[in-house]
Amino acid sequence: MGVRVAMEVSIAAAEAAKLADVDVIAAYPITPQTHIVEHLAELVADGELDAEYVPVESEHSALSACIGSSAAGARTFTATCAQGLALMHEILFIASALRTPIVMMVVNRALSAPINIWNDHSDIMAERDCGWIQTFAENGQEVFDLTLHAFRVAEDHRVLLPIMVNLDGFILSHMIEPIDIPEKEEVRRYLPEFKPAMRLDPDRPISMGPVGIPEVYTEAKKQLDEALVASKGPIIQAWDEFGKIFGRHYKPVETYRCEDAEVLLLTMGSISETAMTAVDIMREKGVSVGLIRLRLWRPFPLDELRAAVKGADTLAVVDRAVSTGGPGGPVCSEVRSALFGLPNRPKVLGFIAGLGGRDVTLEMFEEMVNQSIEYAKEGKEQFYELVGVREL
Amino acid sequence: MIEIRIHGRGGQGAVTSAEIVATAAIEEGKYAQGFPSFGPERRGAPVTAFVRVDDKPIRLREKVYHPDIVVVLDPTLLEVVDVAEGLKDNGMVVINSTQSEDEIKSQYKIRSRMALVDATKIALDNLGLPITNTTMLGALIKATSVVNIDSINRAIDRRFGPIAPKNKMALEQAYKETRVEQ
Amino acid sequence: MKASEKTGGIIGWKDLELGCALIEPGTSKGFKTGDWRSQRPVTDKEKCIRCGLCWILCPDMAYRPTEDGFFDSDGNYCKGCGICARECPTDAIAMIREE
User: Fold this and answer.
1) Which residues, in sequence order, are CB contacts of A362 under 8 Å at separation 6+?
2) In chain A, how many domains are there?
3) Which of A205, A223, A246 is the last residue of a domain?
4) What is the CATH number of the domain that holds C80?
């Protein structure tokens, strides 16, 4: 039996990495991610965690060092956000293409300019296509759980891909809430020792990262895409195993009070909890509304999403980022595209809320649902709108 | 669900007091959130911190807009911040002040019930520093039953280590001296 | 003609090693670049002081030390770039046109 403690969620993420017995942490501090790596640096300095902590001079170097250590066969962890994630951009694609099973916490924060340190999803949405598995946490417990899950999935020989666990900056990272911390033995049972499928070894030399000429590059991209799509099976299996050992159950797509709902909301990350309460309030008032929460973003849970929307007339997708000049928010565009071939697909409406730390409130969800019902009645075509934007 | 907003100045420990209340509640088996007003921290600037406590899991990630309880760590804040903003009708304001209820009501926009204590003096006497966060927790638990004194004391032990005893003494004195409007 | 026949890959994606790695070491040995050459280096042993700069600076590692302390370039790999001749401190290396 583990213990239930009050803990800042950032510290819980670091404690999960400690329980996973990481070998190498290479990271650079950036608000609001700093507490995670600060705590790990402390654990290493105090001798509570036997790991190499590599203080680097930038996020570009942090991830480069992580690729090196992962390639050498070390269990590797890092964390970043916003400008830091953007600075990692080119290395992100290398980490996935080289199939290095790195685990990274992304403490979602808005991208500058204007300079903004608060939460939204503009940082991660700019990295949608980098070939990493991407999950989103709704609360502190899930941050802890998804971190353990990430190591197990990344290192699975059927997967061998890096994983980003996304948690909302401040809203989750700086929250003190109850966290169930399992026993080390339970964690060991869930997460076996890292056995690299391939590693840099002077006694058996190999080359990682050679040139991929035009006659090879397409096949290399196909291999990566197939691997990412096929990782869904092991991801779900690792969640099922997690449920058996720890009693907490996770799925790629969760539904909440969707039975016979005319309007469905769709959310990702911590606003899902507020959205559940908003659904309760609206159901109480007789509004036929439900909620779909995406936990898995890459690989995109196509079948699960299609099953979840079945029977609904209207789907209101809540984005936390703008796809500037695009046809909708990034999540909305993908959801629309995923449902396009579906007979009797719902009308998909796009709402962008909570940019750069603007609070997403209960009332906002009610507004979005009411607006959606109105659009559906009018038969109005809508691509996306910014909720609560001030015009004058 | 009980929602608390704590007003302080950067460096006075408003965030720490939110952390202690949340920790105490969680130790009691309840569900709780403790969090700062998000953003850069600046010493001396007016800051707020928040706590939510409930018997069931809390599914709410918005800020606290309508607190049940407001705690004011520094009397000078009454001049610059509308501490009663959004307070629920039957809410309670716990203030570090040497003034009486009537004086405060005539000077500021506070119409709710109040609990008052001279926390600055108690903190200076016990800690030698005008840091009133733990002292005001004594006033908070005297005025409300959001958490009990034993769990608060355990949370203080964990958070403060060697300087916990002095903080607990300040808390206890405040608990005794706080005047709660009936 | 199918697109894959005209512009196709040289290896199927299922046959690529994990992450496109090359798991056999030293494969560049089998890549003979000697026939790219239009000139070859010839060392005058009278002028050579056996300093080894040609061996150190050769970008293709075509030079090998010999038993008598000199250095020979391996025609299988030497591309004839002439760096050795240019850098030789005693001008002992001449680039001779290949016939």
Assistant:
1) A274, A277, A278, A281, B60, B62
2) 2
3) A246
4) 3.30.70.20
Residue C6, pLDDT above cutoff 80: no
**Which domain covers residue C51, as residue numbers?**
32-99
Segments forming the whole domain that contains residue A51 = 3-246
The DSSP result for A117-143, as a single string, is -S--SHHHHTTTTSS-EEEE-SSHHHH
Chains A and C touch (3+ CB pairs under 8 A): yes
CA distance A264 to chain B (A): 18
Q: Is C25's CB within 8 Å of A222's CB?
A: no
Residue A216 to residue C25, Cβ atoms within 8 A: no
Q: What local confidence, expressed as pLDDT, does residue A383 receive? A: 97
Among residues A246, A266, A294, the one where a domain terminates is: A246
Q: Which of B19, B27, B55, B59 to mutate to test the interface with A (most CBs of A within 10 A)?
A: B59
Chain A residues touching residue C8 (CB < 8 angstroms): 215
Query: Does A204 lie in the same domain as A219?
Result: yes
Is pLDDT at C36 greater than 60 in this prediction? yes
Q: Which of these, A22, A69, A67, lies nearest to A48 by C-alpha position?
A: A22
- A117/B61 touch (CB, cutoff 8 Å), yes or no: no
Q: How far from the centroid of its chain's Cα atoms is residue C83's Cα?
A: 12
pLDDT tens-place string over residues A274-307: 999 999 999 999 999 999 999 999 999 999 999 9
Is residue C4 situated within a structural domain?
A: no
Chains C and B touch (3+ CB pairs under 8 A): no
Confidence band, pLDDT 50/70/90 cuts, at residue B5 = very high
For chain A, which ranges sit under pLDDT 70?
1
Whole-angstrom distance, CA of residue A112 vs CA of residue A109? 9
Whether the CB of C1 is below 8 Å from some CB of chain A: the reply is no
Q: Output Rg (C-alpha) for chain A, integer angstroms.
A: 21
Mean pLDDT (chain A) is 97
Q: Packing angle between helix B133-143 and helix B164-177, nearest 10 degrees? A: 40
Among B47, B41, B21, smallest CA distance to B33 is for B21
Q: Which CATH superfamily is domain B2-180 in?
A: Pyruvate-ferredoxin oxidoreductase, PFOR, domain III (3.40.920.10)
Pair (A141, A290) in one structural domain: no
Chain C residue at shortest CA distance from A197: C18
Q: pTM value?
A: 0.94
Name chain A contacts of B35, Cβ cutoff 8 Å: 170, 174-176
**Count of CA atoms in the C-beta half-sphere (13 A) of C25:** 7
Cβ-based interface (< 8 Å): residues of A facing B: 4-6, 8, 31-32, 117-119, 168, 170-172, 174-178, 270-271, 273-274, 276-277, 357, 359-362
Q: What percent of chain A has pLDDT over 90?
A: 99
In a domain, C57, yes or no: yes
